[in-house]
Amino acid sequence: MAQNSDGAQVSQETLGRPGPPCAMVIFGAGGDLTKRKLFPALYNLAKGKLLPQEFAIVGVSREQFSSDEFRQRTSQEIRQYLTGDVEQDSWDQFVKRLYYIPGDFKDPELYKKLGETLGQVEKEQNTHGNCLFYLATSPTFFPIVVKLLGAAKLTEEQNGKWKRVVIEKPFGHDLESAVSLNHEIGQVLREDQIYRIDHYLGKETVQNILAFRFANGIFEPVWNRRYVDHVQVTVAEELGVEMRGDYYENAGALRDMVPNHIFQLITLTAMEPPISFEAQAVHDEQTKILRAIQPLNPERVLDHAVRGQYAEGEMDGKRVPGYRSEANVNPASSTETFVALALNIDNWRWAGVPFYLRTGKRLATRSTEIVIRFRRPPFVLFRKTSVEKIAPNELVINIQPNEGISLSFEAKIPGPMVRLGAVNMDFQYSDYFGSRPSTGYETLLYDCMMGDPTLFQRADMVEASWTIVQPILDLWKALPPRDFPNYPAGSWGPEQSLELLRREGREWHDSTKKLTSLKEAAEGMSVLGTKA
Ligand code: BG6
Fold it and tell me: CA-to-CA distance for 151 and 311, rounded, in angstroms?
């Protein structure tokens, strides 16, 4: 028996077999991502017996400390970031496999030292010469590290030993830089050695979109323009920019969230059924959707793309500062912290069905969801009743934080008169599967070790995504915003975002609104009924 990330005992068969022997080199081992996500995920994998016995981690970063100090530091930090418990025995085993090398990523000497350390690690931990290089660094280092790894011959695959490189987001900051990054790393690595990570694909609920759509007979027949009125994708965050002002000032909400996380959600929602879970089959279908999305021309950017920046406001009864007062942010910044877009997927399944997407920081609540709103039925039957309108059916796929799926439909409110109310059919992950979400990185790290790139982005997908976003970046650059900040922290973003749907007779799904109590309505109704 092994343990899953919640500490529950599960059979090894359910969990899967351990990855092959290998060493994992983390560039940026002193950084936030490593302590918040990578170490907790690796430890969860170890607890679940999904890490091989012959495994080692080599941390690389600028800070000067020894392997022993690195082990001590990691042992302290893990307690802060792991959602479950740290068990002393399994942690002691884990921590023995940690090594550390300080150095400058731009210095070829570092790579010489790394080669020597990997040789030593191979002898001590029997890692068989397989190696996963994880670039958890600032993006400026991506091409440099790959080039120097290549120059030191560390990415050469010989005698069946594999070498893979995981690249964090952001992959480029526009179309041109993404193409050039693909080209530069392509000089050193084959495409099947490159794992472009998007942590949204590690989320169980995101992977479940495919199971939900294609393992059920009842949804797919109505999953098209004949039945669907429009689709909404919302990735709302309560947090502000926190300590990431430096990065965010140059990124903004559009680059930070849209060509990666949101487009992943859109492609999985909109794609045709792939013929298998093989990476190529899935990526081909995702790419077709990205290519079918119509890039917005400048006129359309003006009225189909909304940007916003948060002003100070109130959240949970506390005042919070505006974006321009955050650390490392220009007090006159024109960086957007909110974006909403209306896009069209111009193919046979979706032509004419708008895909509205929005994301932002300091919004009313934390919620990532996909809403499929179906067409309204004809009204004729209800003309002579007190029903004024019929609410359209809505399928909500809740990615986080309350993982689940719900379908709303109209029901008759009990009573002598014909009145309708929307009711919900609800599925909550926690009711059935009970497990708390993991970091999301477990699946992705495991897949890299197993050599399965299905949940990673292929070069052409990244470029197709930037192709859609580029006209918006261009126009926004040419026309700096004049109304920033334009939404208070704690709201649903700028007024123009509401207007984007309102002018087409639609509205955003509001996850903070509970369905009105139909019981009360029914009670009110029977009183009315008696009176009538
Ligand atoms: C990251 C962005 O990729 O995703 C952050 O850089 C954002 O700005 C984060 O906060 C959101 O991820 P999650 O998993 O919290 O939804």
Answer: 48
Question: Atom 5 of ligand 1 has which residue's CA nearest to it?
Answer: 256
Q: What angle do CA 249, 252, 258 make, to 5 degrees?
A: 155
Q: Which residue among 33, 237, 238, 323 has the greatest number of ligand 1 atoms within 8 angstroms of its CB, and so is best to mutate?
A: 237
Q: What single string gives the DSSP state of each residue in 300-326?
A: HHHHHEEEE-EESEEETTEEE--GGGS
Residue 344: how many CB atoms within 10 A of its CB?
17
Per DSSP, 243 falls in state T
Model confidence pLDDT, tens digit, residues 21-33? 999 999 999 999 9
The span from the first CA to the last CA of the chain, in angstroms, equals 66
Q: What is the Cα–Cα distance from 496 to 500, expressed in whole angstroms?
A: 6
CB 34 within 8 A of CB 98: no
The three-class DSSP label of residue 408 is strand
Q: How far is CA 32 from the centre of its chain?
A: 17
List the residue whose alpha carbon is closest to atom 9 of ligand 1.
257
Mutate to test the pocket of ligand 1, among 246, 248, 257, 370 (most ligand atoms within 8 A of CB): 257
Q: Which two tokens stand for residue 192?
A: 């099947």
**What does the pLDDT read at residue 8?**
58
**Of the residues 261, 283, 304, 509, which is catalytic?**
261
Residue 173 among the catalytic residues: no
Residues of the chain short of pLDDT 70, as ranges, are 1-15, 435-437, 514-532
From the list 415, 408, 407, the residue with the least C-alpha distance to 386 is 415
Question: Which residues line the pocket of ligand 1, CB cutoff 6 A?
Answer: 169, 237, 256, 368
Collapsed DSSP state (helix, strand, coil) of residue 258? helix
Query: In which element (H, E) is residue 394 found?
Result: strand 394-400
Amino acid at 45: L
Tell me the whole-structure pTM to 2 decimals.
0.93
d(CA 99, CA 489): 43
